[in-house]
């Protein structure tokens, strides 16, 4: 049984240069492992609390020294010398120690870093790859590799809000392997970068997750340019390469109106607008098409477009089992975007994953806009048999650490990519 010898943490910087938490877990057997946690910018209101120092003189208040000291002191003191047979036992001890509903006492960043470092140390102790350990945690065999969904264009909060919608992603739909999917995406991305230079007279300036972010005239121009890039790269839109959109609509929803493209749409109008996009463009997935608090209208969105595309909840669900349960009961979505740090422990995220699966939903395992060079997300997406993985673009090392890990896992396991869409 894994026994914790020592827990420690360090404040490190994420891909935006903001502090985050890296925890190290040493087991009595001598197995040691570390894990770093990511951080969002386009966050949902129901997310677990990421503890920041609020000392304005340092990193604008974003320092993580408090969270780090909680790992080094309280969490280490409470857990060292104790044995935990399973991940749920460890996570339960963390939750009890924190004692709040939103993890605000010790910080979800502190708890999650420990939760993942412990999982990785256990995999090391068992001498198995992390993805296999994650699969065991869910009690499922390894089945498939996730289908890639890769940021091409960005707007919204990740790109200075030149257009309302946050991301247009490419889905290499006909690729049979991760390797092939990445090569297809590279061709589309490079074609898009050229197109942007010609059309907007700018070099490839990118948003937080590496998406190209020129001054699109409208959301539709962004979607049109994506289709053009797919075609000019030599692929058939919708057949070889499809599109996914992260509308992230909570961030332009004010006073019961969706404010995009100079319009102020009510919820029914927004649903019509999205249905129009699904009609006109080769879209296979619509993330946060409605706002996180617009519960009354999500069922109508699901009814309207859910037979053709994924109705995917990010801020809407916040990887929160209670919210997912409510969404299943009200038939409000058919896919979960799973971000472990929205909820704060692996065990709760696993429950979210199980709930979504048992409702027949698809699951997209997602990174955050602020990432680190850690690659556990790739192992998680394989171990938990994610239908999709969403990491960002293919241009920045904090993203490529995960893509490269997927390539390693593919070479090691030979698992097939999930058949979707
Ligand atoms: P994040 O958002 O900035 O909160 O990570 C990414 C997303 O909306 O999918
Ligand atoms: Zn999102």
Tell me what you see in this structure:
The structure is a single chain. This protein is of the alpha/beta class. The protein has 13 helices and 14 strands. The strands form three sheets. An eight-stranded mixed beta barrel has the order 4-5-6-10-11-12-13-14, surrounded by seven helices. Strands 1-2-3 form a three-stranded antiparallel β-sheet. A three-stranded antiparallel β-sheet has the order 7-8-9. Helix 5 crosses helix 6 and helix 7 runs parallel beside helix 8. The protein is globular, with a radius of gyration of 21 Å. The mean pLDDT is 97. Bound molecules: 2-phosphoglycolic acid (PGA) and zinc ion. Residues 246, 248, 287-288, 314 line the site of zinc ion.
List the defining traits of the structure above.
421 residues; alpha/beta; Enolase-like, domain 1; TIM Barrel; 2 domains; eight-stranded mixed beta barrel; three-stranded antiparallel sheet; 14 strands; globular; binds zinc ion
